[in-house]
Each structure stands twice: as structure tokens, then as C-alpha cells.
Amino acid sequence: MDYKKPVSVLVVIHTPALDVLLLERARHPGFWQSVTGSQEDDEALLETARREVREETGIDAGNGEFIDWQHTNRYEIFAEWRFRYAPGVTHNTEHVFSLCVPEPGPVRIAPDEHLGYRWLPWKEAAEACFSWSNRDAILELPLRFANRSTSPQ
Q1: Residue ranges of the alpha helices (H) in the chain?
Q2: C-alpha angle 64/67/68, rounded to 5°?
Q3: Could you give the dihedral angle defined by the CA atoms of residues 133, 134, 140 and 142, in that order, rounded to the nearest 10 degrees?
Q4: Helices (runs of H) and strands (runs of E) counted in the chain
Q5: To which CATH superfamily is domain 7-144 assigned?
Q6: Where are the domains positioned within the chain?
Q7: How many Å apart are CA 114 and CA 93, to the nearest integer?
Q8: Strand duo 66-76 + 91-100: pairing
Q9: For residue 150, is pLDDT > 70?
Q10: Pairing relation of β-strands 32-33 and 19-25?
Q11: Is residue 63's pLDDT more than 90?
């Protein structure tokens, strides 16, 4: 069996006005999240972020459009998912990225992974997330983008 690596990305997709894209998990209706996914083989983390965004939303962004926050979260893997990892693996390291898109728009979800999507203002998006690390990243958006031309006035 090929085990998943306990290394993943979290990609917060947002607009300049800080509307955030959330996806509803297929296996957990009502659980909303940003794009997430595990690193494959020796793939660079930036390529993992790009691949996961493309697979989960249909957005094909160039590597230069992603911002690597140089921030990681370590969390315990839910017991129901541990069978995907090598025996004894209980924690995952998540690397945070963001991707700014010009405006909210339709996305092509992966139906085996997600039931739907929605764009929400950043505060509402943070409240809707089931994951603490996803919530914290969204809450950090206004701080990270306060001095950039992509931030709201």
C-alpha cells in the first residue's frame, strides 16, 4: 500500500477585497474548508499547492501567483483517516499558502471530494471553517495584505 505523506498544504484562495473561497467536504457535509492536500513523492510544496488548487477548483494558477507564508501547523490526524498513513503516524505538518484571484467566480469542484463551494467575506469564512488552522489563516489575511495593493481600502 502507498501511504500518504504526513505533509500537506493549506491554500487560502481570496480576492483583493478578501472574499474567501470555501469548499464543502463530501465526506462531511457542513464542514467547510479552503483547498488542502498532501504532498506527493518529492514534489515541491509550491507544486503541491498548485496541483491541489487545480484538482479541487479547476483554477490553473502559475507558481508565481502563490504566496508561501513560511508558516506551518502541526496537528493530530483524525483517527478515521490514519489508515491512509504509515503505521504509527499520528500527526501532520501543514504548510500555508495563499492565492489572490481578481474576483469571486465559479469553480469546478472535485465531486468525490466536495459537495459545493461558496465565496464569503473573510470574517464569515473564518467562522464557517471547521479547522482551527484554516480559521487562523483566514483571520490573518487582513494583517498579511494590509500594506499591499491587493488589500481593501
Answers
A1: 45-57, 122-128, 132-144
A2: 115
A3: 180
A4: 3, 7
A5: Nucleoside Triphosphate Pyrophosphohydrolase (3.90.79.10)
A6: 7-144
A7: 22
A8: antiparallel
A9: no
A10: antiparallel
A11: no
Residue 139, C-alpha cell as written in the block: 483571520
Q: Which residue in 94, 4, 93, 97 sits closest to 46, CA to CA?
A: 97
How many Å apart are CA 80 and CA 133, to the nearest integer? 19
The separation between CA 13 and the C-alpha centre of its own chain, rounded to angstroms, equals: 7
The length of the chain is 153
Query: Position 39: which residue type?
Result: Q
Residues 80-94: tens digit of each pLDDT: 889 999 999 999 999
pTM for the model stands at 0.92
Q: Per the structure block, which three cell numbers stand in for 10?
A: 493549506
The conformation of residue 103, written as its DSSP 8-state character, comes to: S
The three cell numbers of residue 121 are 467575506
Sign for the pseudo-dihedral over CA of 123, 126, 132, 137: negative
Distances (CA, A) of 38 to 9, 55, 112, 117, 128: 6, 12, 16, 20, 22
